[in-house]
Each structure stands twice: as structure tokens, then as C-alpha cells.
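# nightly structure sweep
# worker-07 picked up a monomer target from the shared queue
# config: single-sequence mode, recycle default, output format = C-alpha cells
# input follows
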Amino acid sequence: MSAAPAERPVIRLERVSKRYGSFAAVEEASFEIRRGEFFSLLGPSGCGKTTLLRMIAGFEDVTSGVLRLDGADVVGVPPYRRSVNTVFQNYALFPHLSVFENVAFGPRIRSLGRGEVERRVRDMLGIVHLSEFADRRPSQLSGGQRQRVALARALVNQPSALLLDEPLSALDVELRRRMQLELKRIQREVGISFVFVTHDQEEALTMSDRIAVMRAGRLEQVGTPEEIYDAPATAFVARFIGSANLIPVVAGPSTGGRTALTLPGERRGEAPAAGRGFAPGTAALLLVRPEDLELGASEPPPARVAIPVTCTDLVFQGPVVRCALQDAAGDELVVYLEEHEQKPEVRPGASLWLSWEPRAGRLLEPDVA
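# output follows
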């Protein structure tokens, strides 16, 4: 018996580009978004993530490539004929209408019957936990409540996908964190694909099923939060997702699944061999996450990779203390120490040993400008 065919993706991009004259805002982006998936476009300001979202919505023309929604090529199709809705940063609610009337606006434009409009709006207000606020105006709501009204208004027409352009950016830190969980709950409850633009790595890791990391108009990597964090494809992704120590090394021979390394200060070590391999004598970067590091006054046993470092600063950050270090080559490193486990020898100016298990390292190519 043959396997059932995979479900058609809601959104599929095939080498999609957007150019303004000679400037490439997006360069040959190819990926797909599955039905019911929370998918984030993550990257620094100016990387092209909002331009990409606007092309999916139809607000920006595609210069080249194919963009499919529910299997149909929509290049050139206007926004109102696409099965997606967009939530913008400022929510764009009608200030003179009640919450109920704001949410009912879309179904009424589509000429749905009064009973169907009433049912859809009441159901959606229930999902976003705003049923008791149906008669209020937007000015009578908090920022988080207004954001949920905008979500309900965008979802009530049952689009194939909801596009969100940094909708949490105007909220304070605590409300933003609560709304991250609310957004994920709402997305799971309605079962609609969400495409979420953010520059906040913590936000993307918290909410996403998969993440596309962008840099200067190009996709650096697409994967689950775990894949992006544990196995970054490039040095840029490693730096952008979480805290990363990237130590310049020179690769040596590879045997038994491990690559010999020369580290700063002519120290020797090894790391798991990279997939494509590094020729002996090749410069590389060794990624080691702060949580995989240990710091002490004595040189560790030979089974661990170790380098001498100098402590340059200690910064209290609540449950952890951020310890800034400098290695023999002058490169900066960082370790997070549990506040209650601080050692008296770890102080600014102290000479220390930084060590880790060989399996904790990951070899990456040096950055390319």
C-alpha cells in the first residue's frame, strides 16, 4: 500500500526575489509553510523579513520567482483576492466602532447573513477571551486587549494564513511575554497557519514551530527552534539565536568522527567532525554555548577541551551572573554562572581556565560579509 501524499503547504515560495533597482531586498527565497504551523521570519532590522511578508500579503510585487497560496500561483493577484489576512503593528482598529462591530466588519463586507455574522463574531470573541468587552470601544481597552481585537478581526473571515508584522512590539515586556503565550494558544485553537515577523530571538524560540532566519535579504537557515539553536548552519545564525561563543580555531585531521583543533594559545582540542568536513589547516569557528562551559582556577583533566582566559567583568543579572572573559587571542567570551554558585576565584582580572566536553563544540565556517 502506497503512503498517503503529504498535505499541500499553505504557502510556498520558489526563488522569490524583490528588487528596487539594483538593490535586492529579498534574494531567491525558497521555503514552504505547512497548514496549521506557527512560522516565524526572524532577523535584524532591514534584513527583508517585512518585505517578504508584504509580498505574501500582496502589498508588494514579486520581482521574480513563484509564490503559491493553497497551491495557486498568486504573483500579480491583488491582496483582497488572496486567502490571507494581516495584523499590523498599530492594529488599525476603527476607533468609532465597538469591539463587536470591529470584528464583524469583514464578514459584513463579504455579505454574510446576519445570523452567520453574529455566530462568527461571538465564537471569535470567545476564543480571544473578549466576550465581555463586545460593547466597548478600542479606547476603553488595554494594549493587549486591542491586540486581541485585531487578531479576532483578522481571523473571523477564516483565512488560510494569518500574517503578523511585529504585532507585539508596542507592548511592555511583561505584557509582551503574556501575549506570546496567548498568541500561541489562539493559533492552536483556530488551527490556522500564522506567519510571524519579529527581530526578537526569544519571541521566535518561544512561539514558533519553525523559524526562517534572514540576513541581508537572504535566508540563512529554516528549521525548528531546536535545530536553529543546537545546529546553526552559519556563524550569523549562531550569534543571532541565543548567546554564542565563537572561538577562532584551525582544523586538523579528522578521525573517528572528530576533528583535531588548534585553539588560541596553541592549545589542542577536538570537536565533532562537521558534515562537509574541514581540510587540515583550514580556519574555522568553534561554537560553544555558555551553558556548556565550566570555569575554574585549576587546569581541567585532558578529557576536556580547555583554554586559559582572563575574567574582564562580572554583571549581576538576577538568577545568573554574566562573566565576560578574554582568551589568549584577545577574543571575548561569556559564561553565565548561577548566582548562588559563584566561586571566589572568579573575579575581574583573575586568570582562569575555561573548559568544555569535546562533544559540546560545533565547527562553523567563518563569517562571509
